[in-house]
Design brief:
heterodimer, A: about 240 residues, mainly alpha, 14 helices, about 0% strand, B: about 260 residues, Rossmann fold, four-stranded antiparallel β-sheet, 10 helices, about 25% strand
C-alpha cells in the first residue's frame, strides 16, 4: 500500500514537472468548452442540465486519455528506468496500480477544473444536481477504463506514438461495441449470446446509464471489472516484456 | 557479521539464461563474500550485464538461481532487492525530477522515513558531492553528474551488497578515481560486484576477477593470478589470451 502511494506520488509529480499536465488541462478545458457551447448548444437548448457538456466526454477521452496513458510504461522502457524501478523492493502489481492511480488522479484533477460550468448552470437555472454528480462519477469511471487500456498498451511498446494509436483504436472499439459498426462484423455467424455480450461491453451504454442519474451497481461493476481486467493484463505484459 | 560470514553474500548457482535461440549465460556459478570486490570482465555481449540483471532480480533465469544474504532471488525477490544496491548499465534515472526529489523517492520506496531519511540523503550527497546540483532536474546535468546520481541511488540505503554495471563508464579521469576510492572504502564490510571494460580498474579496486565470454566463466581468481596468465605479466595481455585464445585451446583439447 505504501509503495503504491510512493509510486503514485512520483508519477503524479512528474506530470506536473513537464508541460504535459498543463497542455492537457488547457486542451481539455478548451475542448469541453467548445463542445458544450457550440456542438452541444448549451444556451440554445435552454435547459438547466449539463447534458451538452457530458455527452461529448467519451469522444474527448478517446484522444486525450491515450495521450496521458501512452507515456506510463513506454517511456519507462525507452529511458531504461524500468530496470531501476523493477529492481527496487516493490512488486510489479504495486508499480502498475501506482502508475494507473496517478494517471487517474490527474484526470480527476482535470475533470474537477470544469467546475465553472457547474456553477454556471446553477446560476442560470435550477438543475438536478444529483444527476450532475452521477454524471461526474460516470465520466471519471469511464476515464479510468480508457486509462487502464492505455496503460496496458503502453507497456507493449517503447514507442509512445504506437502506444497512442493502438490505444485509440481499442478505446474506439470499446466505445462503439454497442453500435452496428462493430456488431455487424459478428452478426450472422456469431451466436446471439456473444453479440449481446459484445454489445454490453460498450462504454457508451454504461456511461449513458449512470449519467441519467440512476447509479446502477451493475454499471459500476462493469467499469471496475474492466479496469481490473486491463490492469491485470498490464501486469502480465510488464512482467513478460520489461527486459525486451 | 558472524552470521553473515557463514553464508556468502552472493551465491550464484548454475545460472542459465536463454533469449530464444541465444544462449546468453551458460551455467555460471560463483560466490562473493563480504569484504570482496569482484570485477566482472569480458567482451561486449559476453553475458556480464545479463548475469547482473538476474542477480538483481530484473531478469528471471531460465534455470539456476542466485542467493543474496541467504534469500533466493526467484522465491523472495523483494528481500533480495531490499538488501542490494543496484546500478543498472547507463545509470538510468528520472530526468524530469530534481536530484533531491529523486533521492527522496528512492529513500521512501526503500522504507527510509523521517529524520533518518534526511540523514541518509545528507550523507550520500556529501559522499558523492551532489550539493551543488540538488535542486536541478536530472536531465539538465552532465553525464558525470547523472552517473553520480545513479551511484547515490545505489548506496543510499547503505546496502551490504552492491552490484554495479560499469560504474565508471563516461566519467572523466578524476571522477573515475573518486568512484574507485569510494568503492575501496566501502569494500571492507560490503560484497561488491562491478563490471568493467577498464582492466586497470581491476588492479585498482578488485580483490578478485572473473572473466566471462560467450556466457561462460573462463577465469576466476585474483588480479595477480590473472596477470600471471600472461608471459609479459600484463593484465591486458592476459585478458586477450583468455578471451581470444582459450576457446581455441579448448577446441584442441576436446579433439585429442
Amino acid at each position: 500500500m505504501k509503495n503504491i502511494k510512493t509510486i503514485m506520488k512520483r508519477e503524479l509529480h512528474s506530470y506536473f514537472a513537464t508541460p504535459v499536465a498543463y497542455v492537457f488541462i488547457v486542451v481539455f478545458l478548451f475542448m469541453t468548452g467548445i463542445f458544450t457551447f457550440y456542438l452541444g448548444s448549451f444556451y440554445e437548448r435552454n435547459q438547466a442540465d449539463l447534458d451538452s457538456f457530458f455527452q461529448f466526454h467519451p469522444w474527448l477521452y478517446l484522444f486525450l486519455i491515450p495521450a496521458i496513458a501512452m507515456r506510463l510504461w513506454s517511456e519507462e522502457r525507452k529511458s531504461g528506468t524500468i530496470e531501476l524501478l523493477m529492481t527496487l523492493p516493490i512488486t510489479i502489481t504495486e508499480a502498475v496500480i501506482g502508475k494507473f492511480l496517478a494517471a487517474w488522479c490527474f484526470t480527476a484533477i482535470a475533470l474537477a477544473l470544469t467546475f465553472p460550468i457547474w456553477i454556471t448552470v446553477n446560476y442560470l437555472g435550477d438543475p438536478d444536481n444529483t444527476v450532475i454528480v452521477a454524471s461526474y462519477i460516470a465520466s471519471l469511471l469511464m476515464a479510468g477504463g480508457f486509462l487502464a487500456i492505455g496503460s496496458c498498451i503502453s507497456a507493449l511498446t517503447k514507442n509512445q506514438v504506437i502506444a497512442f494509436v493502438i490505444s485509440v483504436v481499442i478505446c474506439f472499439l470499446f466505445i462503439l461495441s454497442g453500435f452496428p459498426l462493430v456488431l455487424d462484423i459478428f452478426e450472422g455467424w456469431a451466436p446471439q449470446m456473444l453479440i449481446d455480450a459484445i454489445a454490453s461491453f460498450s462504454f457508451l451504454t454504461h456511461f449513458e446509464s449512470i449519467r441519467k442519474g440512476v447509479i446502477d451497481i451493475r454499471d459500476i461493476i462493469y467499469f471496475i471489472v474492466l479496469i481490473s481486467f486491463w490492469l491485470y493484463a498490464n501486469i502480465i505484459v510488464v512482467d513478460a516484456r520489461k527486459a525486451s | 557479521m558472524t552470521q553473515e560470514d557463514k553464508i556468502p553474500a552472493i551465491e550464484v548457482k548454475a545460472l542459465d539464461k536463454r533469449f530464444g535461440a541465444i544462449h546468453a549465460v551458460r551455467n555460471v556459478s560463483f560466490s562473493v563474500n563480504h569484504g570482496e570486490v569482484l570485477g566482472f570482465l569480458g567482451p561486449n555481449g559476453a553475458g556480464k550485464s545479463t548475469t547482473m540483471k538476474m542477480i538483481a532480480g530484473f531478469l528471471e533465469p531460465t534455470s539456476g538461481t542466485a542467493m543474496v544474504n541467504g534469500y533466493d532471488v526467484s522465491e523472495d525477490p523483494i528481500a533480495v532487492k531490499s538488501s542490494i544496491g543496484y546500478l543498472p548499465e547507463g545509470a538510468p534515472s528520472y530526468g524530469e525530477m530534481t536530484v533531491l526529489n529523486f533521492l527522496n523517492f528512492i529513500a521512501e520506496i526503500r522504507g527510509i522515513n523521517g529524520a533518518e531519511r534526511h540523514q541518509c540523503i545528507d550523507k550520500v550527497v556529501q559522499q558523492i558531492q551532489l550539493e551543488t546540483v540538488l535542486t536541478q532536474t536530472i536531465e539538465t546535468l552532465s553525464k558525470g553528474y547523472k552517473r553520480r546520481v545513479g551511484l547515490a541511488q545505489t548506496i543510499l540505503h547503505d546496502p551490504d551488497v552492491l552490484i554495479m554495471d560499469e560504474p565508471t563508464d563516461g566519467l572523466d579521469p578524476n571522477q573515475k578515481h573518486e568512484v574507485r576510492t569510494m568503492i575501496k572504502e566501502m569494500a571492507q564490510e560490503k560484497a561488491i560486484i562491478i563490471s568493467t571494460h577498464i582492466l586497470e580498474e581491476v588492479d585498482a579496486v578488485c580483490s578478485r576477477a572473473i572473466i566471462i565470454a560467450a556466457g561462460q566463466i573462463l577465469f576466476d581468481g585474483t588480479p595477480a593470478e590473472l596477470r600471471a596468465k600472461s608471459d609479459k605479466n600484463d593484465i591486458d595481455d592476459a585478458f586477450r589470451r583468455i578471451t581470444l585464445e582459450l576457446p581455441v585451446d579448448q577446441g584442441q583439447a576436446s579433439q585429442s
